[in-house]
Amino acid sequence: MSPGAHASPVLIPPNSRAAAVVREGQSGFAGPAPISAWVAGLSVLAIAIHVIFDGRYGYFRDEFYYAACGQHPAWGYVDHAPLAPWLAQLSRKTLGDSLFALRSLPALSAGVKVYLAGWIAREMGGRRFGQSLAALTVLLAPIYLTFDNFFSMNAFEPVFWMLCAAIVLRIANRGDSRLWIAFGAVAGVGILNKHSMLMFGSGIAAGLLLTPMRREFLRIWVWLAAAIAFLFFLPNLLWEIRNGWPTLALYHAVAGVKYVVVSPLAYVLEQGLLTNPVAVPIWIAGLLFLLGNSRGKKYAVLGWAYLVMLIEMMALHGKIYYLGPAYVMLLAAGAVWLERLDLRAAWQWVRPTVVGAVAVAGIVAAPLAMPILPVDAAVSYCRFWDVRAVHVENVPQGDLPQIFGDMFGWQEQVASMARAYDGLPAAERGRATILAYNYGEAGAIDYLGARYGLPHAISGHNQYGFWGPRGHSAETVLAIGFERAQLERFFGDVRPVDVADPPHAMPEESDLTIYICRKPKASFEKSWGEWRYLS
Hints:
It is built from 26 helices and five strands. By secondary structure, the protein is mainly alpha-helical. It folds into two domains: 31-369, no CATH class; 410-531, no CATH class. Strand 1 (433-436), helix 23 and strand 2 form a beta-alpha-beta unit.
C-alpha cells in the first residue's frame, strides 16, 4: 500500500466476540459504570410496595416482642441482639405506635437492599442491564419480600451483610486497604443487630484465605477492622457472660425441638424457594462467575464466603432462611455474568426472556410472601400452592402459613382480656396481675392494652421470664394461653371467665380461655423458676 493510500476500514461482525471487546472499551466497561436510573426506580418501588401492602393484616407476633424489649434498654436479650429493640423504641418515640410507623424502617430497608444489589453489580463491572436485573431479582425475591414485611432484625440483616460485601468489592477493585475500617464498623453494628453477622465474617475470612486477597492479612487494616467489630460486640458479649450465656442456653433448648431440621439436600433445594425458583439459575451462575470466570474470580472471596456459610448453616442445622442475606450478592453476580455473555444474534431473546420470567414468577410468588391479597383470597391462594408444607418451626399450622397466621388474633385476645379485667371487682382490679404464656400474648397486651386501661403483662417466656415478676402480686391473676391443669398447680381457685377464638390465627393462639386465678400456693418471687421457660 502506498504512503498516501487510505486504509480500508476493518469490518467486525456486530455479534462477534471482537465486537463485544470493542463495545466494552468504548463504554468504559473496564471501570465502574454509573448507577442505572432503573436501580433507583426499583428501589423506590420496593419501598412503595411495602408502604402500600404491609398494613393489610395486623401486627406480627415478634413486633410486639421487640417493642417490649425496646422499653427495657439493655446490651443483650435472651433470644436476640440489642439493635432491633433499640430501633423499635426509636421508631415509637419519633413516629408513634401505628402499624405503618413500626414498619417504616423495614420498608426503607427494602429499598436499600435493592439499591445495594445494583451497586454490587456495578462494582463487579455491571452496566445498565446487569445492575437492573440484579435490582429486579432482589426486589421480587420472596425471602426479601417476607423479611421487609414486618419489623424484625431479619429486615436489616441483609443490609449489613451486603454493605460489607460492597466494601470488599471496592477493596478488590481499588486496592485501598484502609476501607477495612469501614468494614469493621459496619460489621460491628451488624453483630449488634443479629449474631449471624459473625457467620458472614467467618465466611469472608475464609474467602480471603482461599484467594489472592489473602495478602490483606499482611496489612494492619484488616486486623484493625476485626478489632473495631469486636469493640462494637464487646458490650453484648459482656452482657452474655454476666448473665450466664442465656442465648446459648436458648439455642440448646430449641435445637432439634422447636426448629425444623432438614437434610442437607432439602436445605439446598429450599433455598430456591426463598429466592424465586426462576432466579435459581441466575444466582448459581453468579456463584460460578465468582469462582470460575476469568473476570469474576477477582471477587472470588464472596463466592467462597457463601460456600463456607452454607456448610456452617447445614452443620449447625440453621433455619433455611438464615442464609437468605447472601443471595443479594449472588444474584448481582449472576446478572453481571448474563450481561457479559456473548450472545449471537439468534440468542438475543435470552436476556429479555429472563427479565420477563423473573418478573412473572416474582409477581406470582409475592402474595405468598407478603399480605397483598384479602385474607380469604390469601387462604385459597396459599392452599393452592401448599406453602404450609415449607415451614421452619414445629408448630401446628392454621389456614394460613405461619408468616401470615402470626399477624392475626392479637386484637381479639387483648379485647377479651380487657373484658375479663373490667369484670373484676374494683377493689381487686387495682392489684390484679395479667399473666401470659408466651411473649406474643404478653407483648400484645403491653402494646395494645393501654387503650383498654390494662396493666403490663408478665410471662415466663424467654426475655419476659428473664425480667421476672417485677413485683406483681399472685393474689388475683388473669391468665391467658395456659391449660387449666397448669394453673391449678399454682393456684387453689382457677375459673374460666372469657374465651378468645379469633379467625385465621395460629392454632396455638386460637380458642384461648382466660382464667381468673386466686388463692396462690406461693408468691411469684418464690415460684418464678417454675414459670420460666425457653423456646
